[in-house]
Design brief:
Layout: H1 5-24, E1 41-44, E2 56-61, E3 72-76, H2 83-89, H3 92-99, E4 103-107, H4 123-126, H5 131-147, E5 154-159, H6 161-172, E6 179-183, H7 194-202, H8 211-216, E7 227-233, H9 242-255, E8 263-267, E9 270-275, E10 279-284, E11 291-293, E12 304-306, H10 311-318, H11 321-324
Parallel strand pairs: 3-4, 3-5, 5-6, 6-7, 7-10, 11-12
Antiparallel strand pairs: 1-2, 2-4, 8-9, 9-10
Helix pairs in contact: 1-7
Length: 325
């Protein structure tokens, strides 16, 4: 029988939902394991301000301390992950300790979402100063004040649902974040419900419009838009790889960049396209759903894939953290 495209997409989305439920919900039954030992100090901030999304705020303070005027990095974990575990395995803890940069680690609760996914597909959770987006922004502002961070060097990165939420945060708070990195995520405005989110994970929308980003930003916003690094495995069967292409196209239009990248290089199965210093897209051949690590930065773990390429180090270069820090 030949299924219409819409039914095929729905069918794939339903299969994906069933697989996610089977794979992740059983892991929520036992108590969550303790966070791994970290070189610096992991601190919880139970009262950081408005928390409409009912998230937990953890902060990793670098082992050597934090000098005033340093950058600040916010990391959003993927479904079923712990915030500290994701930060450690992806290599961000090591980089933070080396550069003396604090990390804000928002953590989702199973009472919000059964798979502990950030709810990037719910408009009430991604709108400025509302839901989970409002909580993440409040955490970020509290950390800026606490550490005396440079307000012009605030960055955010995330994986999967955390990646999609990262894109949403860049759209809603372009005045807060200088740049971001989305790994295996989706464009802004891809979905307005959980079911639509599953469908878009299974099959990307034909077009991702930059109007969705502008609509999410403060009214009449005229400032600079955050720069963006996009990462995707081309064998990802959880988030359709086309979503990375659509996200890059969305930001390309938003930033007024030309269609053709100024750099397009492929080596060892890794394609890197860059539109100047404002936008880049990394496509990893044969890699499934996860965050790429390697070359001594990070290590393999749940949804952390040793691909021989350290995304964390490359993202830090894109953000120019290592140029001056």
């Amino acid at each position: 029988m030949r299924w219409p495209l819409s039914l095929k997409t729905l069918k794939r989305g339903l299969r994906l939902a069933a697989r996610v439920a089977k794979a992740e919900l059983p892991r929520l039954k036992p108590p969550l394991p303790a966070a791994p030992p970290l070189p610096g100090r992991l601190v919880e901030f139970p009262a950081f301000g408005a928390n409409p999304g009912k998230l937990r705020m953890l902060v990793h303070e670098p082992s050597g301390g934090v000098a005033p005027g340093r950058p600040l990095i916010v990391l959003l974990h993927g479904c079923g992950q712990q915030a500290a575990g994701f930060a450690e395995a992806s290599g961000w803890i090591g980089l933070a300790d080396r550069l003396g940069i604090p990390l804000v680690l928002p953590e989702q609760a199973s009472s919000n979402n059964g798979g502990r996914c950030f709810q990037w597909f719910e408009p009430a959770q991604t709108a400025r100063d509302a839901g989970e987006a409002g909580s993440i922004a409040a955490m970020t502002q509290a950390a800026i004040s606490h550490f005396g961070s440079d307000p012009d060097r605030i960055f955010i990165a995330g994986l999967s649902a955390g990646g999609a939420m990262t894109a949403a945060m860049l759209a809603a708070y372009p005045d807060l974040f200088a740049a971001g990195a989305v790994v295996a995520g989706l464009p802004v405005g891809s979905a307005t419900s959980a079911m639509q989110g599953l469908m878009r994970m299974a099959s990307a929308a034909p077009v991702a419009r930059d109007e969705a980003v502008r609509k999410a930003a403060p009214q009449d916003y005229r400032g600079a838009w955050p720069h963006l690094s996009v990462w995707q495995g081309d064998a990802d069967d959880t988030v359709a790889p086309e979503n990375a292409e659509r996200l890059a196209q969305q930001w390309q239009a938003l930033l007024g960049l030309p269609d053709a990248p100024v750099r397009d290089e492929t080596a060892a199965g890794v394609r890197h396209r860059a539109w100047g210093d404002a936008l880049e897209l990394w496509t990893l051949a044969g890699m499934g759903h996860g965050y790429p690590v390697g070359d001594g930065v990070g290590h393999a773990a749940s949804f952390i894939i040793d691909r021989g390429l350290p995304a964390t180090a490359r993202i830090a270069d894109f953000w120019r953290l290592t140029d001056t820090d």
